[in-house]
Amino acid sequence: MMEPNFTARTDCRAARILMEAFPAIATFDAVGLTAEQIHYYLGESAGVAYFQLQALRNAGPAIAA
Questions:
Q1: Which of 24, 42, 58, 59 is the most exposed place for a label (fewest CB within 10 A)?
Q2: Superkingdom of the source (predicted)?
Q3: Across 25-33, average pLDDT
Q4: Residues 56 and 63 sit within 8 Å (Cβ to Cβ)
């Protein structure tokens, strides 16, 4: 099974969709927090979206908040 070939444009679009759906994740400061604490403060869905956004930011070019 081949993995999808995501471009920077696709990553930016996905990040924008996540930030529009969950505005709190764009500026959330998770320094010193565990994954469990992040989910507690943001809620389950926004917590998952936060980690997806971090993966997108780490995978390619800088994605502005």
A1: 58
A2: Bacteria
A3: 93
A4: yes
